[in-house]
Amino acid sequence: MATLKVKIVTLPTYDVTSMAVADASTYPPYTIVSNPNLLVTPPGFPAVSIPFIIKTYMILTSDVLGISDEGVHMPLPDGVYNITYSFDPVFTNFDKISIMRVDQIQEKFDNVFMGLDMMECEQAVKEQTKVTLNTIYLLIQGSVAAANNCATIEAYKLYDQANKMLDSLINKNCGCSGNNYLINFY
Q: What's the CA gap between 70 and 158, in Å, rounded?
């Protein structure tokens, strides 16, 4: 006989204005669930309680999370989201996850990457740009890994470093002058 295992996961939406949370729980036959609920704390905003339907997924937008007015879908802020899925009795039936949302910085990275003409520069500039892009990508992924392991401060440090390097690259300061370390790490 299957045992109850409460679990939620986030799914990619590939959209800066939404995120998806899915119920990946295992419910034994004839399980009665009452008051299923998501408690979501977006970065920089208060927690919001949202009724949830079991065995499905829910798309969360800025208006659902109380970040914007109803019907207005703004980009969701990047940062650590704490999400708890629970149902009655809450003290035994819940799952809590923390995730680092990086959709805005990823979109920024993608735009920079697609906007670079790797054939335009001399070889040294192209190589430095590739190294910088790889470093930025690793910092973004490190931020996600840190948040997944409850290292919130480290997650934000890595995110901020990636964002600073992206801004430097956008401002055409590729670091080819030999000042790359000073620009990006001080």
A: 33
